[in-house]
Specification:
mainly beta
């Protein structure tokens, strides 16, 4: 399923090397179509609650999903 540019997506798996966890919400900033590959890729920007960029990660489509009405915003603090 193609995701819209600048639309919100939800991470479906942890990306521990970037400090991201399943359930984190990001914004699609680029779509990557690779010939001969079954799955598209997306660059997704993740922000903290004050609007600062936490990470920009390129992920396969299978690592993302669209938000649904069942989703609720939540906050988690990073451990020091």
């Amino acid at each position: 399923m193609p995701f819209d540019m600048y639309g919100d997506v939800i991470l479906t798996r942890d990306v521990t090397e970037r400090g991201l966890r399943a359930g984190d919400v990001g914004t699609v900033v680029e779509r990557h179509v690779v010939a001969g590959v079954r799955e598209e890729g997306y660059s997704v920007e993740f922000f903290d609650m004050t609007g600062n960029t936490v990470s920009v990660v390129t992920l396969p489509e299978s690592a993302l999903r669209l938000p649904t009405p069942a989703d609720r915003p939540a906050a988690r603090a990073l451990s020091a």
